[in-house]
What does this fold into?
Amino acid sequence: MPHATSTKRSKPMSNNNQKCVRITFVGTPNAGKSTLMNRLVGAKVSIVTPKVQTTRTRVTGIKTVGETQIIYLDTPGIFKPNKMLDKSMVKAAWEGLKDTDFTALLVDVQKGIGDEVKMIIAGINSRQNKNILVLNKIDLIAREKLLDITREINEMANFEATFMISALKGNGVEDLEKYFTQNAPEGQWIYPEDQMTDLPSRMFAAEITREKLMLCLNKEIPYNLMVETEQWEEKPVSKKYPNGSANIRQVIYVTSESQKKIVVGKAGSNIKKVGEMARKELEWALEMKINLFLFVKVQENWLTNPEHYRMMGLD
Ligand SMILES: Nc1nc2c(ncn2[C@@H]2O[C@H](COP(=O)(O)OP(=O)(O)OP(=O)(O)O)[C@@H](O)[C@H]2O)c(=O)[nH]1
Ligand SMILES: [Mg+2]
It folds into this structure.
């Protein structure tokens, strides 16, 4: 799957037949929202891991099909938050429902309808948006169980339509896109036709590194770190690097010395592995040689520092 970063582009072409539709994905952590958005956009826009609470802020994915521009909004998973960062993430998810045509509730059918799903349904019921139900991960359960869940959940809220999909395998995803194009209101496009996200490259690069950290670290560590791209220095095209190259310097903030030790690993083994994985993916995404420099810094209070929240796109 290709990547998408937002480079500066010209204004969208305006014409009278244009349609534009906004869809916000909501659901519990790990329901598959980011996987689905990436598949619909056809590029990696939002990071994905097997761990809960991967997405921390709202991420826009854009796909223009014929006359219709579809603007997807991926959101952090909604759960009962305790810590400040969790609260801010959940708030960002609810805010994503403010300016949208459709709220698409994603449910992991293997997990079924627990308290958190019920809480989200209560939340979307209290809003005026058109709701659609997306039952995800159908590759993991038997058909009869799926029909039971469909019946049960449709009694709890008014859904305009129900889709049964596998975001991972792709089943049912085309029907979903068709539904959005068919139900898109008339309206001018917001973005140029070829744009796939509005995420700045620096943030995208920080997210890729955070994804690799989440994949390589366990327990509470991924939830106590953030990544910031401090420096991005592009070098001109040369004989050795005909596509150009860039030096990227990123800082990984953790909240204690012991976390730093784990992130760095024995003789730097872990950070080296993370750096290599991130660099490879960035080189592929940006199509140029990347020199990635990672630094781990202890900043005990980053989890309560508003400046860092702004940097992550949170309140
Ligand atoms: N088997 C299966 N796994 C899936 C499917 N969709 C997503 N997954 C997996 O579920 C895990 C979580 O996917 P994400 O897309 O990160 O989920 P999310 O809803 O964005 O999670 P948060 O960002 O934490 O809220 C990943 O390991 C995905 O590969 C699916 O249709 N079938
Ligand atoms: Mg996500």
